[in-house]
Amino acid sequence: MPDPIHILGHTGLSLANLPYTKSPAFVRADRTCGHYIAAIVAAKEQGARSRLTEAIRLGLLHYAQCMREHGIPMLDPDQFGGLSLGGVPGISPVGRYTPVFRHADEACRPQLPTGVRDNGSGP
Q1: In the prediction, which pLDDT does 14 show?
Q2: Which residues have CB under 8 Å from 120's CB, separation 6+?
Q3: In whole angstroms, what is the distance from residue 82 CA to residue 67 CA?
Q4: Contact 66, 43 (CB under 8 A)
Q5: DSSP string, the chain
Q6: CA distances to 17, 26, 64, 78, 118 from 56, in Å
Q7: Going by C-beta distance under 8 Å and a sequence separation of 6 or more, which residues neighbour residue 37?
Q8: Smallest Cα–Cα separation from 48: which of 17, 18, 72, 14?
Q9: Of 2, 5, 62, 77, which has the highest C-beta tally within 10 A?
Q10: What percent of the chain has pLDDT over 70?
Q11: Angle (nearest 5°) at CA 4 between 56 and 96
Q12: Which phi and psi angles does 14 have, rounded to 5°?
């Protein structure tokens, strides 16, 4: 497992590149070692929830809906306001640097609520 890294727009350090599918070895290790970071994860989640107002949540929801209308399989925002393509199987890559993503983002950006910035980690 890689060391934690700082991700632009995130508070503190983040665990990046965690597997989407949890292998039995990962599950065992997480059960054994997860208590070391449980309080940190809970504090980061609480901070994210406290910043997510209903107006911001609705704006992010409208942005995700608009992106889907433009062919990007974006999921609705999670409980912390995070937006994701979700690793949807069977869909060609539409990462943030592809022309189709940039076109959709340009069309949908007016849906983002005031104050939501994209600093390289996504809106």
Answers
A1: 75
A2: 8, 9
A3: 14
A4: no
A5: -PPPB--TTSSS-B--S--SS--HHHHHHHHHHGGGTHHHHHHHHHHHHHH--HHHHHHHHHHHHHHHHTT--PPPP-TTS----TT-TTS----TTSHHHHHHHHHHGGGSPTT---SSS--
A6: 27, 34, 12, 12, 14
A7: 15
A8: 14
A9: 77
A10: 71
A11: 50
A12: -130, 150
Of the pLDDT bands very low, low, confident and very high (cuts 50, 70, 90), residue 32 is: very high
Give the per-residue pLDDT at 108: 92
Residue type, 74: M
Domain ranges of the chain: 1-51, 54-111
User: d(Cα 47, Cα 25) in Å, to the nearest integer?
Assistant: 30
b/e per residue 65-79 (b: at least 16 CB within 10 A): ebbeebebbbeebee
User: Which amino acid, residue 96?
Assistant: R
Question: Cα 105 vs. chain centroid, distance in angstroms?
Answer: 15
Residues ≥6 apart with Cβ < 8 Å to 112:
59, 60, 63, 123
